[in-house]
């Protein structure tokens, strides 16, 4: 469990003993994002041509998600390799960030003994790589790609992402329909599930108005979810007893069909809009500003904190778009600044 409580349906809430991402150390409000420069580029000025072109010759096949495995210093990329959901032909690429040694089909559903239909969201914890694959969560050894037993999610419709909390609890998003039909109203199948370290599955939230949860990120505050049907960023705070919870906050997002979401160490989030071809950045209360445009169906994103790279798979572009994206500097503590004055 995340083991955190939220005092009300506000995005400004934080976990016990933690500080709001929008506050400075003295409790004053953090400067609006518009006053801060992301990189040497102006917000929204990055285009595909500004990418770090290190995997341009790799033949990805509808890459749908990417993560940085910091323990092994690798990039994992899930490839749909067609979207019929029937053929067992999805695959996962294992890439070295230097591009010196990489394996396109490291885990391949076309191999005997491997089941992988339509892999989407990825997460890694300890020695296990988790993969959201239609109605089950696949598990593989991160050291050698060996397939382990699946995690069955009873009643699942279409699992789109997975995220792991620091205690090893796994969270799973069920978009409730085929991803392109995520705005279908009142299906009642939209859900977020938890799998605790003992392997028990429980419902965090499942209801018609959830909004098509697509991508997840777990932080000390709770679960942040992009809702592709309602174009919102949703906060859920799992309960200590595993009971379903109500919304802890919702924020309208720019663009249509939000897909990937990552939380950066500086307190900002980056979210991609598939139909708009844009990546946005902002604090959890907003505003979200465009930082990269001109992307072809950006999907579920990752971040390489070691190299400060934004990792974006381009679903219909069959490629990766990697950009240098520095963390924002910590705002100057006004109290400390005053103390230095004579």
According to CATH, the fold-level topology is Neuraminidase
Helix content: under 10%
The largest beta-sheet arranges its strands as 1-2-3-4
Please count the helical segments. 1
Percentage of residues in strands: 35-45%
Whole-number tally of structural domains = 1
Give the radius of gyration: 19 Å
Give the biggest sheet.
4 strands, antiparallel
Average pLDDT level: 84
**What is the top-level CATH class?**
Mainly Beta
CATH superfamily annotation: TolB, C-terminal domain
Name the overall outline: globular
**From the helix content, strand content and strand pairing, which structural class follows?**
mainly beta
SSE topology sketch:
Blueprint (H helix, E strand, L loop, with lengths): L62 E7 L4 E6 L11 E5 L7 E6 L10 E7 L2 E6 L2 E6 L9 E2 L6 E6 L5 E5 L16 E5 L5 E6 L6 E6 L4 E5 L4 E5 L12 E4 L5 E6 L4 E6 L4 E6 L5 E4 L9 E3 L4 E6 L4 E6 L9 H7 L2
Antiparallel strand pairs: 1-2, 2-3, 3-4, 5-6, 6-7, 7-8, 9-10, 10-11, 11-12, 13-14, 14-15, 15-16, 17-18, 18-19, 19-20, 21-22, 22-23
């Amino acid at each position: 469990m995340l083991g955190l409580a939220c005092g009300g349906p506000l995005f400004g809430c934080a976990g016990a003993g933690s500080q709001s991402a929008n506050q400075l150390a003295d409790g004053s409000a953090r400067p609006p994002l518009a006053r801060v420069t992301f990189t040497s580029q102006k917000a929204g000025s990055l285009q595909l041509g500004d990418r770090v072109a290190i995997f341009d010759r790799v033949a990805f096949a509808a890459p749908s998600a990417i993560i940085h495995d910091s323990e092994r210093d690798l990039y994992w990329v899930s490839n749909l390799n067609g979207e019929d959901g029937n053929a067992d032909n999805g695959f996962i690429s294992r890439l070295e960030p230097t591009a010196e040694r990489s394996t396109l089909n490291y885990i391949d559903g076309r191999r005997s003994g491997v089941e992988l239909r339509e892999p989407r969201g990825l997460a890694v914890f300890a020695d296990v790589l988790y993969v959201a694959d239609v109605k089950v969560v696949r598990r593989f050894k991160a050291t050698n790609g060996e397939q382990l037993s699946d995690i069955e999610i009873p009643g699942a419709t279409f699992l789109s992402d997975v995220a792991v909390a620091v205690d090893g609890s796994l969270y799973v998003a069920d978009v409730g329909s085929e991803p392109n039909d995520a705005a279908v109203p009142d299906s009642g199948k939209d859900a977020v599930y938890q799998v605790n370290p003992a392997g028990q599955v429980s419902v965090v939230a499942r209801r018609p108005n959830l909004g098509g949860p697509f991508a997840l990120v777990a932080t000390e505050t709770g679960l942040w979810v992009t809702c592709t049907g309602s174009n919102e960023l949703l906060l859920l705070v799992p309960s200590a007893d595993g009971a379903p919870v109500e919304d802890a906050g919702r924020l309208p997002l720019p663009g249509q069909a939000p897909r990937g979401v990552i939380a950066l160490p500086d307190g900002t989030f980056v979210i991609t809009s598939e139909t708009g071809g844009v990546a946005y950045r902002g604090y959890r209360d907003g505003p979200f500003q465009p930082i990269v445009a001109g992307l072809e169906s950006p999907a579920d994103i990752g971040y390489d904190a070691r190299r400060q790279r934004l990792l974006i798979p381009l679903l219909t572009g069959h490629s990766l778009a990697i950009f240098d994206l520095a963390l924002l500097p910590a705002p100057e503590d006004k109290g400390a600044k005053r103390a230095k004055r004579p």
